[in-house]
Amino acid sequence: MKDKREIAVPARTREILARHGFTLKKSLGQNFLTEPNILHKIVEVAGITPTSNVIEVGPGIGALTEHLVQNAAQVLAFEIDGRLLPILADTLQEYTNVMIRNQDVLQTDLVQISQENFTQQLPIKVVANLPYYITTPIMMHFLESALPVAEMIVMVQKEVAERINAEPGTKAYGSLSIAVQYYMETEISFIVPKTVFVPQPNVDSAILKLTRRSYPKVRVSNEQAFFELIRSAFQLRRKTLWNNLQHHYGKDPAMKSWLQTSLTQAEIDPSRRGETLSLEEFAQLSNTMEENK
Ligand code: SAM
């Protein structure tokens, strides 16, 4: 008989794990959510309707997936741990609009696999309780791919959410804030206490909502050079921009002169630190450096 309880109800999660003899793997970031109310809130924040396709990373035993499939047109989920596939086949057996792929999302060609699996062209939302050990690579994999992801609603460690959402001049601001804010508008929707996971992690989490901008926030003439500049500006924390740029691009007279001229033309004081520069200032500097090449 069909079990009417949600998968995330703690007693049902325990029963599913016991029935399948499943032991959680810490190395794969397996902290499962066992609080249905949090899942209801995630689905509400994500605004999933039958006119959206959803990609989920790491369905686990399907706690979030069952809510996604009940609301979306189709759900495509990537799960690296093959032991979870028979469990998902069991817990999600009544749904026909879910496709589970046993693969590492980082090794996935997102454009190709989306074309192969989604039958309708609808806006794509990424909704996931991300494995903490690879949160940033997964987010960048989606942002840098050519897949037109409209929104990402992801659970990440609270501290990572704060870094992504940070303003210039704050302690949390860094290359990750810039890399994400370049493509997306960012918002922390709500905080999730560590007590709602099995096993309980050491830190609280947050739901981060990222919405694709129609155009990147700033205009840059060479994206690759822009991202190189940003990485270099934050390479040595607590050092000035001047120190960091020389450290990265080189100290020979020609390089120094190129950097100095570009900083002067972009009207950026070399004694400032990277964390005080806005996205617009980084773009200005990068474009000037390109012009002076
Ligand atoms: N969605 C479930 C939930 O909310 O309870 C499980 C979330 S758990 C934090 C992360 C899931 O991601 C695990 O099921 C883990 O096996 C899976 N995972 C870890 N690394 C992955 C990768 N590289 N690609 C796909 N899935 C991965």
Describe the structure.
With about 290 residues, the chain is of the alpha/beta class. It contains twelve helices and nine strands. It has two domains: about 10-210, Vaccinia Virus protein VP39 (Rossmann fold, 3-Layer(aba) Sandwich); about 225-290, rRNA adenine dimethylase, C-terminal domain (Helicase, Ruva Protein, domain 3, Orthogonal Bundle). The strands form two sheets. It has a seven-stranded mixed β-sheet, sandwiched between helices. Strands 1-8 form a two-stranded antiparallel ribbon. Helix 6 (about 135-145) links the parallel strand 5 (about 125-130) and strand 6 (about 150-155). Helix 11 crosses helix 12. The relative contact order is 0.10. S-adenosylmethionine binds near residues 31, 57, 64, 78 and 134. Pfam families: RrnaAD.
